[in-house]
């Protein structure tokens, strides 16, 4: 597994953003965790929400004095084909896990587990890709607390996928979900931790006028003027993100707003082999419309700019573990219309900072888009409330605070177990 380098940060940088009591609490908890070694393991260093979180969470942990590493699994395309199938199954798709696929999964996860030689007090395994490491790690490091951090909505998970992972889950000590509903069928200690955005990251930091001008020039085919409303969805090219549903709604909106433009911006994550296929289908569908713009693997500064300068951001997911792109847009005071699935309703208060719709309510999406495009003051009001929602609930310091509290709990439990065995 590859040890990932991370940027340096300072807790003081967040003083103008986070609550003072929150920062003080973080410092106290970090003192309680002095000497504890923590490892986060995931499947990609780029292109996914988990990687983005770890890029900020890990360095801030170290700034606080919590000795924290981040390692990324090494595996071939065949493994990621398997784990994408598993991901789809866990989100409710009817899939088949053939014996050869199970063998591939076991081989690669066991190989990665064997490559870990350093000892840690706590290991956090992120998502199904890493879960297969649990048994081997538990056998080799019996004093290590294993946490499985599942970022997926499991409320409609396929039974064959859950059964396949059941033995792996049995070897972890604690499970973390984004919503309580996701863990209702698990007979294990569980904690709910909402993900967060880093307001100081390249994707979310303020942009100065020169940077904004440079992005406008670079994206010249897109007309960011009052006369050409821009609707944007930022998401992977993935069947669960329903880009085709967004396109259909846009085409209806365009009959009332002929100059409207649609931006579909998405990255190609290293662990998602389905992305290229979906992108090509979307490109074929939109090839004859010069007002639909597809952007892939854009730098974070560009995504930052798009979320700030779009009139409306849409997140029309069919299923969604959490959907941090909602908080990203709200932080930039851009109103969001999102599906009432997964973690999106935790971020959107319908009518207060955006709108919630059923993922299959195409007519309501069109109505909400047209209503907001005719109401500049309403969009500004929703955007203002959206930023406050994110400030209060979905910024990085709160996220790290939740992790520190969990680490203290599992370490205390481990110490008591060790003392009991000694007696």
Topology:
Layout: E1 2-3, H1 20-32, E2 37-42, H2 49-63, E3 67-72, H3 77-90, H4 99-115, E4 122-126, H5 127-131, H6 134-140, E5 145-149, H7 159-170, E6 174-177, E7 190-192, H8 209-218, E8 230-234, H9 243-254, E9 261-266, H10 275-286, E10 292-296, H11 300-309, E11 312-315, H12 324-331, E12 336-339, H13 344-347, E13 354-357, H14 362-373, H15 376-393, H16 396-422
Parallel strand pairs: 2-3, 2-4, 4-5, 5-6, 6-7, 8-9, 8-11, 9-10, 11-12, 12-13
Antiparallel strand pairs: 1-3
Helix pairs in contact: 1-16, 3-4, 9-14, 12-15
Outline:
This protein is of the alpha/beta class and 423 residues long. It has helices at residues 20-32, 49-63, 77-90, 99-115, 127-131, 134-140, 159-170, 209-218, 243-254, 275-286, 300-309, 324-331, 344-347, 362-373, 376-393, 396-422, and strands at residues 2-3, 37-42, 67-72, 122-126, 145-149, 174-177, 190-192, 230-234, 261-266, 292-296, 312-315, 336-339, 354-357. It is built from 16 helices and 13 strands.
Please tell me about this protein's structure.
The protein is α/β, with parallel strands linked by helices. 46% of the residues lie in helices and 14% in strands. A 7-stranded mixed sheet has the order 1-3-2-4-5-6-7, sandwiched between helices. A 6-stranded parallel sheet has the order 10-9-8-11-12-13, with helices on both faces. Helix 2 (49-63) links the parallel strand 2 (37-42) and strand 3. Helix 1 (20-32) packs parallel to helix 16 (396-422) and helix 12 (324-331) packs across helix 15 (376-393).
